[in-house]
Design brief:
By secondary structure, the protein is α/β, with parallel strands linked by helices. 31% of the residues lie in helices and 21% in strands. It has helices at 37-41, 51-60, 81-89, 104-112, 130-134, 141-153, 171-180, 208-218; strands at residues 3-10, 19-24, 67-71, 95-99, 118-122, 157-164, 186-191, 224-228.
């Protein structure tokens, strides 16, 4: 597997666990608010870390770590993902996969084969607004719907998460997401923060009052909705 980043210790990327995080390159989306545009657009220019080196470090730290998060980019595009996850599982550590959900068959196989214990799927928008944010031609919403349904029915731990951008997220968006994911266990709202690595510069986050408003709308449909990165809760 081609690894472009490795965080040896994190308390943020795998909820409730002291974990390490592995970052792959490439992505099948071009999301306007992506914070890792260099990994998406020009992964070949990013440093590469040997997967063997990363696995050796994970094995050495397996008595300290409580899990491994595999993120990106989009990990499901890497042909070496299955072998890498298999090697991690041999250490006895649980794996959390971060994904955009556009490769449902790969996701299904990883779940069915017991290679991941948790999935975090990004929900970019309601289904009406997805294509605009994903930024790709011939966008197929059915693939996103299939992955969300698969995750909700899988029996493994999961979370959905949505980045809230003022230019793209409204009350209508919140209602649309809520109706689509009705019955889901958890959704985290993440306020947008501009940075040098954003795909499209000049976007804005919402204020605390609006974030709470969106949260309360979504709580009508989803069991647990929380706001990350603010004391709004």
């Amino acid at each position: 597997m081609i690894i472009h980043g490795f965080n040896k210790t994190t308390l943020l990327d795998y909820p409730g666990r002291l974990a390490c995080s592995v970052f792959t390159g490439n992505c099948n989306f071009r999301c306007v608010f992506c914070q890792n545009s260099s990994l998406v657009l020009e992964p070949e220019k990013e440093p590469v870390i040997s997967d063997r080196e990363v696995l050796d470090l994970i094995k050495k730290r397996r008595n300290i770590l409580q899990g491994v998060c595999v993120s990106g980019g989009e990990p499901t595009l890497d042909p070496g993902l299955r072998d890498f996850l298999t090697a991690i599982r041999e250490t006895g550590l649980p794996v959390k996969l971060d994904t955009n959900g556009y490769e449902p068959e790969i996701l299904r196989a990883l779940i069915d084969d017991g290679l991941i214990e948790m999935v975090a799927m990004d929900i970019k928008s309601d289904l009406d607004g997805y294509a605009e944010i994903a930024g790709i031609d011939r966008f197929c919403p059915e693939r996103i719907e299939e992955s969300a349904r698969l995750i909700m029915e899988s029996g493994i731990e999961y979370e959905f998460r949505t980045t809230v951008v003022r230019e793209y997220f409204t009350e209508k968006t919140a209602v649309g997401i809520g109706k689509w994911l009705k019955g889901a266990k958890v959704l985290h709202l993440q306020d947008f923060r501009d940075s040098d690595g954003v795909m499209v510069p000049g976007l804005h986050g919402w204020d605390r009052e609006h974030l709470i408003q969106f949260r309360d709308i979504l709580r009508k449909y989803i069991e647990k909705v929380e706001i990350r990165g603010t004391d709004a809760g």
